[in-house]
Design brief:
The chain has seven helices and no strands. It is mainly α. The protein has one domain (2-34, 42-241). Helix 1 crosses helix 3. The radius of gyration is 22 Å and the shape is flat.
Length: 245
């Protein structure tokens, strides 16, 4: 149920943004387009090709609430896939590698990114990469967006600004939470109490520090493995992006 609500909430934001854009584009088309005049309008009855990740409003008209929830989930998965493909292509170009080289680099780079996010879980970013405009969260669903703090709470909050909804795993929303993610969620709920139990709070903090230290060691080892297959220019590029120290 909780995951179902999160999907609907996230999809609603997408729906509103795209719907606004759709209305704007319809106004442009009614006026004959930006530069093509009346002749630029498409023939009556011909539907525009839907862009990946954008809702099909005609298809949605006759959907039940359950069908819309399922459709929004499929839409979010499509958006994630498109973002991953675009980011992977951009990373390939930044590193100057072909498909064959990328297949060797990509899995090692994903390990570096995953451990880096866990090493800094719950903290503000020590480094903000400008590499990707698709960076809307920590790594964007397993992609290679610039470091964004490694963790985000889901929508929701109280008057004090503390989010109260549950969190989602970094990258793959269907996988189990890591130790660090679970501890952040537990601390989040503890801090809803103005006077949390000191012993319990201290125990969670110590556990979170240990989880970060463990991930930091894994990040260091993953960096060493990645450096073995990079030339100096590629290494410098990833250092500037914040993936490597």
């Amino acid at each position: 149920m909780k995951k179902h609500k999160l999907i609907i909430a996230a999809a609603s934001c997408v729906f509103i943004a795209v719907f606004t854009q759709e209305l704007s584009s319809q106004n442009v088309r009614r006026s004959g387009g930006v530069s093509g005049g009346a002749g630029s309008s498409r023939p009556r009855g011909m539907r525009m090709r839907r862009m990946p990740g954008r809702p099909d409003f005609e298809r949605m008209k006759n959907m039940s609430p359950e069908e819309k929830a399922k459709y929004f989930q499929e839409l979010l998965e499509e958006q994630r896939r498109v973002a991953e493909e675009q980011e992977a292509l951009a990373m390939q170009q930044a590193l100057g590698v072909d498909e064959k080289q990328w297949k060797v680099i990509e899995p090692k780079l994903k390990k570096v990114k995953s451990y880096r996010e866990q090493a800094f879980i719950g903290t503000k970013p020590p480094f903000q990469s400008n590499f990707s405009t698709f960076s809307t969260g920590p790594g964007v669903a397993g992609g290679f967006g610039g470091f964004s703090g490694g963790f985000q709470f889901q929508a929701g909050g109280n008057a004090g600004g503390m989010a109260t909804s549950s969190i989602s795993p970094i990258g793959d929303p269907d996988r189990p939470l890591t130790d660090g993610e679970r501890l952040i969620e537990e601390l989040q709920w503890l801090l809803q109490d103005p006077e949390p139990e000191p012993a319990e709070l201290r125990q969670k903090l110590d556990a979170l520090r240990r989880a970060r230290e463990k991930a930091t060691k894994q990040w260091v080892r993953a960096q060493q493995e990645l450096r073995k297959i990079l030339n100096l220019r590629q290494e410098a590029t990833l250092v500037m992006m914040g993936f490597l120290n």
